[in-house]
Amino acid sequence: MSNNRQRILVPGKMNQRVLDRLPDHFDPVFIAATDPALVTAELSSSVAGIAVQGKIPAEFVDAFPKLEIIANFGVGYDGVDAVHAAERSVMVTNTPDVLTEEVADTAIGLLLNTVRCFPVAEQWLRQGRWVKEGAFVLTPLTLRGRTVGLYGLGRIGLAIAKRLEAFGVSIAYHTRTPREGLAYTHYTTLKSMAEAVDTIIVIVPGTESTRRTVNAEVLQALGPQGVLINVGRGTTVDEEALIDALQRGVIAAAGLDVFENEPHVPEALLSLPNVSLLPHVASASQATRDAMADLVVDNLVAWFETGAALTPVPETPFKRKTA
User: What CA–CA distance (Å, rounded) separates 140 from 265?
Assistant: First the structure.
């Protein structure tokens, strides 16, 4: 270890800005993946922090007895077993807030693309069909008069709701407990919200409690004019049930930025005309990813210099233990 600086491990892929900044503060080391078999005795005994972009299994965390902090690149940290880390007194951080507005913008853009078929209309123009065949068809769906239900109302959900207010649509939401001070209608179950709205935007984390909660029953409740938008996690939606619902007209359309087995998207989804698909780009602007990268490094710096992380996840609300 150089200059007695803390050793930070980067397993697998990581944003380049993180890689550029780490040497200014730490002694970074790299391995190909979060595989315990790749951890040497020297690494095991020296690593104090991990900067990760993706999944990190509990057994990998356990390979480092001196580990103090896991800095996760992303607001979602479902790839990190934060409960296990907390049991080990290992801090876990994520990158909230800095991507909130970008993801909210994307959600609205995806909603508009889905109901108004803007990407298809652009291809109509680019392929010369406007000249050869005439005007693009009238879109059967519109945002006018819709009732939008938000599945999840955290930072991003609230930012989406704020934007929706400007469109003059009715807004409802489903969370485990209602939030105080909001005029939006709260529903205690996802199905009851689906029955009351015609549009659902999914923005919940990808946890076991949310896995495939948007299922055939919920889609049936959403109805034949229903639109599903997902900018949360692909695991929240039962993809087979969604494909079936779209094929049979159980719901009208869907807009998806996330999928269950990324980057692989089912051929059945790709072939459907009533979907708008994006390759998980909700926060993918240079400015937002730079801000996320800075927060990863700044969390590490703050932890080792001040004893407190900037953005700890709820499972690890503690301070650093000093000798």
Answer: 26
Same domain, 33 and 146: no
How many residues are listed for the chain in this entry?
323
Residue 47 · residue 204 · CB < 8 Å: no
> Which candidate in 212, 280, 315, 320 is catalytic?
280
Q: Is 25 a catalytic residue?
A: no
DSSP string, 66-127: T--EEEESSS--TTB-HHHHHHTT-EEE---STTHHHHHHHHHHHHHHHHH-HHHHHHHHHT
pLDDT per residue over 306-320, tens digit each?
A: 999 999 999 999 999
217 annotated active-site: no
| Catalytic residue (choose from 87, 122, 165, 262) | 262
Domain span including residue 91? 2-96+286-306
Short-list 280, 303, 289, CA closest to 16: 289
Residues 107 and 23 in one domain: no
In this structure, are 32 and 139 located in the same domain?
no
**CA dihedral defined by 14, 261, 264, 71, rounded to 10 degrees?**
-10
Candidate list 21, 233, 260, 289, residue with the active-site label: 233
| 258 token code pair | 């996330």
Q: Which two three-digit tokens encode residue 279?
A: 């390759």
Q: What is the pTM assigned to this prediction?
A: 0.93
Question: What is the share, in percent, of the chain residues with pLDDT greater than 90?
Answer: 98
Q: What is the mean pLDDT of residues 84-112?
A: 97
